Amino acid sequence: MTIAMIGTWRMAETGITPAMAELRAGGSAGDALVTAIKAVEDYPYYQSVGYGGLPNAAGVVETDAAYMDGDTFRLGAIAGARDIANPIAVAQALSQEPANNLLVGTGATEYASTHGFQLKNMLTERAGQKWEQKRQELASKNLNPYDGHDTVGMVALDAQSRMTVGTSTSGLFMKRTGRVGDSPLPGAGYYVDSTIGGAAATGMGEDLMKASLSYETVRLMGTGLSASEALRQAVYPFIDRLTKIGQHPREFSYVALRQDGDWGIATNVEFTFAVAQDDGATQIYIAQPNGDQPDIQPVTAEWLAADKARRQAPLA
């Protein structure tokens, strides 16, 4: 029996640890995935996902999320949604609809409201303070406003060899109202096939959506490649191609999980991620870019303590 989960960024551990307990008890990959991503969405100190996510230029939190079932290829997604407490749960529900599987803006919120999902103001006091600080900085200095856009993306494998993938994000900090990145887009932000494996992306959505590299990674795993080798062949050549045509590629990071539990990552920036398999504890790793062979090391207790202190430090 093989069960496993992998997720983007340090924040994934918050959800993977309780979700793996569900999988060990015989739970499904779909339910475990939603449990995991909801835990990240609910934690107010993760500034790029769910409650506590940083708002758009108008000071409003708009969220994107997606869910895909690797057995049936059913998928659901929302984009530019407001006031939905757990976007991943709504995405999962939409995957069961015969049509209207991707809803945007007020349509997503209306669906959530009429189908019993919790609605709430997703802007925390802390996120509002950061928005005000950034707004004042932009008025007086020539700064890049887009400094927060980490998507949580996860792939889950259960004991029955079922696989799911999901994403959730509040998108770019200070983005234009209605801006949507790659996270709700199948093939680009995520893809899964239970007979092969799954992959999910995080980074600069405007670049990530230029190619369906999550799908391509799964396709390559289907030819027999390891997760790492599939990512190596899918991701880095495209980054090189963008460079050659003068597109100046920004952040590209991916996680992948095969149907046999083999996992891999690809990144062109410093990148943290979390992995759990079978009866093992959830391990958080940090990857440093190194061509197409990132250097991957477990994080230390000191690193974890510093990360927690930084996230929860009082704002100046």
UniProtKB/TrEMBL annotation:
This is N(4)-(Beta-N-acetylglucosaminyl)-L-asparaginase. It comes from Schleiferilactobacillus harbinensis.
